[in-house]
Design a protein that fits this description.
By secondary structure, this protein is an alpha/beta fold. Helices cover 29% and strands 25% of the residues. The protein starts with a helix and ends in a 7-residue tail after the last strand.
């Protein structure tokens, strides 16, 4: 009788350890765009799906893709499942905001990876970024990459160097020519 009780207790303990609570903890590297609670609401909906309620059938890749589709600023994400606990931990790596992109009469926030995160009116907490005026005719879409990571890094380096050397930037422009950001200063009659 004791052996049967021990086996049943082990069986129920094993089944219990495979259950995933639909109330995960969120670990976000930044709250520059949104508070962690905004990400948490979407994650909770994903963990309420029946297949994501246990550790065997949990589809962490689908959870990550869903998060990145809704929040383009998420550079990477991972789901950590504790061995014996029920509360999963979702780690979010958030790309830093780099600059505002003025295109088609709208102002967008572009992150360090070149993705258009959202319109600035939806991200009121982001301020004091340089504005890049797009005259190339490129169609900007929220959630899609507007430029490469290398191009964003180059523009950020130019802006940082201008600030370091106290060169006042009047405007930054992407003309119709490919791979050419133009920088105009307010103290000189030429542009770079």
């Amino acid at each position: 009788f004791m052996v049967i009780l021990v086996v049943l207790a082990l069986f129920f303990g094993l089944v219990y350890s495979l259950i995933v609570r639909p109330d995960p903890r969120i670990s976000a590297s930044s709250s520059a765009y949104r508070p962690p609670s905004a990400y948490r609401q979407v994650v909770i909906k994903q963990f309420q799906i029946l297949k994501n309620r246990n550790k065997i059938t949990l589809d962490d890749q689908a959870i990550v893709k869903s998060l990145q589709a809704q929040f383009p600023e998420i550079a990477s994400a991972s789901v950590e499942l504790p061995l014996l606990g029920e509360t999963p931990i979702v780690h979010l790596s958030i790309a830093a905001p780099s600059f505002f992109l003025s295109s088609g009469g709208n102002l967008y926030v572009v992150d360090a990876q070149g993705y258009v995160v959202d319109r600035t009116i939806n991200l009121a907490g982001i301020k004091n970024l340089p504005t890049l005026s797009d005259q190339s005719g490129f169609r900007v879409k929220v959630g899609q990459q507007a430029m490469s990571t290398a191009n964003v890094s180059f523009i950020n380096t130019v802006v940082a160097e201008a600030k370091r050397t106290k060169v006042p930037i009047s405007s930054l422009t992407l003309p119709a020519r490919a791979q050419e950001p133009d920088l105009r200063t307010s103290d000189r009659g030429y542009y770079v």
